[in-house]
Specification:
The chain is mainly alpha-helical. Helices cover 69% and strands 0% of the residues. The protein has seven helices and no strands. Helix 2 packs across helix 4.
Amino acid sequence: MKIERSILVSFVLLVLIASLYRLLPGRPLGFAPQIAMALFSGSIIKNKRYSFLMPILSMLFSDIIYEILFQYKISSIPGFYGGQIENYILFSSVTLIGFLIQKQNWFKILTGGVAGATFYFLTSNFLVWIAGGLAINNLPYAKTLEGLLTCYAAAIPFYLGSLYATIIFSVILFGGYRLFSKQSVPIKATA
């Protein structure tokens, strides 16, 4: 059985970034690698089934780390939370945008990063609003256009952090992959 080099390299990069990212103390709001991971997976992994699986596995791996840190009172952030399944679905959906990115085209990578972060911002905050998420005053957002816009306005700091993170982690992932793929040889495994 031949293991596609892109799958192996992608998995290693995703796991490393998920692990190293969790060690950052006091990270900015919304600053996370998941959108870049989904874009990267959609662009690089040839088997499209695996491209959806990679970001989910990396998220699950980091959520488990967070939960362990939470259980041992090392972190105040739990790894498992309400709305987690919806988050996994949204991040997996970003993988579709990754299908449109050519791994050697930095303009498409940047455009995909902006599109992925914007898609996630608009969709996740719409879900918060529709599900009765709480505003700063600890009351649910009103089910009006004004309530929706208030929800989006409150989430702008998260969007900016997400946008910066997506661009930074995309450079790391796509750049690392490009560097590594020039240095490596195909990997063969026996079944």
